[in-house]
Design a protein that fits this description.
This protein is of the alpha+beta class. It has 4 helices and 13 strands. The chain has helices spanning 3-19, 36-39, 151-157, 215-225; strands at residues 55-56, 68-70, 75-80, 85-89, 94-97, 100-110, 116-117, 124-131, 137-146, 167-174, 186-192, 200-207, 211-213. Strands 2, 3, 4, 5, 6, 8, 9, 10, 11, 12 and 13 form an 11-stranded mixed sheet that branches. The longest helix has 17 residues, at 3-19. 41% of the residues are buried. The structure holds zinc ion. Zinc ion is lined by residues 108, 110, 127, 194.
């Protein structure tokens, strides 16, 4: 996957459904995940061998450097694109890993989780989508178990867009730090966008320590979409998951 295509992937990830561009796709029926690769030539990567999400298992021990998270209170708008609820982020927040800087563009949610860990699904998963200057993508994933309210989600859901196409400007800035646990050890693998165009070459960092969200918070998200938004797990094939 070249750089230009990855940039296009990010653009589509953030704007496609709202702008109405690209072929319609969904999570069930004739436009469901098993048919994505056939819906459009632009979605051919959905049939690739390095796809996300995956069941993270069979870990390979590695010396993984800590991620340096430098996040500001940069969330400024929240939108419902029919596929997820997404919070867009102002420039200036980033993570650094292996000497590379990836700027946080947006975060969004999936219920139930897309990735599984040792075969276990979670009721909610957050994806923090980053890009470097060349357009290479890096996604930090955070799992949520059912428990107490997450304070970041409390703030975001105060302005939850409850219908497809709705976008609200956040009146109180939110920091994505509120979605992250203190302990930030992670699993690492290479994968793809989990939605069409399913572009590969995406670096995935799945935080080991889950967070908590309350059942009403998870239900509010599911109700805003009206359907589950998890692509089924894809085969690891030749890939290994590092820890
Ligand atoms: Zn996602």
């Amino acid at each position: 996957m070249n750089i230009k295509m990855l940039s296009t992937g990010l653009l589509m990830l953030s704007t496609a459904a709202v702008a109405g561009s690209g072929h319609e796709w969904g999570y069930s029926g004739s436009t469901g995940p098993e048919n994505w690769a056939q819906l459009s030539g632009d979605y051919a990567a959905c049939g690739g061998v390095n796809q996300s999400p995956v069941n993270l298992t069979g870990f390979l021990e590695a010396e993984l450097a800590p991620i340096n998270f430098q996040y500001q209170k940069g969330a400024y708008e929240i939108l419902n694109n029919g596929h997820t609820v997404q919070v867009n982020y102002k420039p200036g927040s980033f993570m650094e890993i292996e000497g590379q800087r990836f700027e946080l563009k947006q975060f969004h949610f999936h219920a139930p989780s897309e990735n599984h860990i040792n075969g276990e699904s979670y009721p909610l998963e957050a994806h923090l989508v980053h890009a470097d200057k060349a357009g290479h993508l890096a996604v930090v994933a955070v799992m949520f178990t059912e428990g107490s309210d997450n304070e970041g989600i409390v703030k975001a859901w105060q302005q939850l867009p409850e219908t497809k196409g709705q976008k609200n400007t956040l009146t109180h800035p939110i920091s994505v730090n509120e979605l992250l646990p203190k302990e930030r050890a992670y699993y690492r693998f290479n994968g793809s966008l989990t939605t069409p165009p399913c572009s590969e070459g995406v670096r995935w960092y799945v935080i080991k320590q889950p967070m908590q969200a309350s059942m009403p918070q998870i239900k509010a998200f599911a109700d805003a979409l009206g359907h589950p938004n998890n692509r089924p797990v894809q085969p690891l094939n030749a890939r290994q998951v590092l820890q």
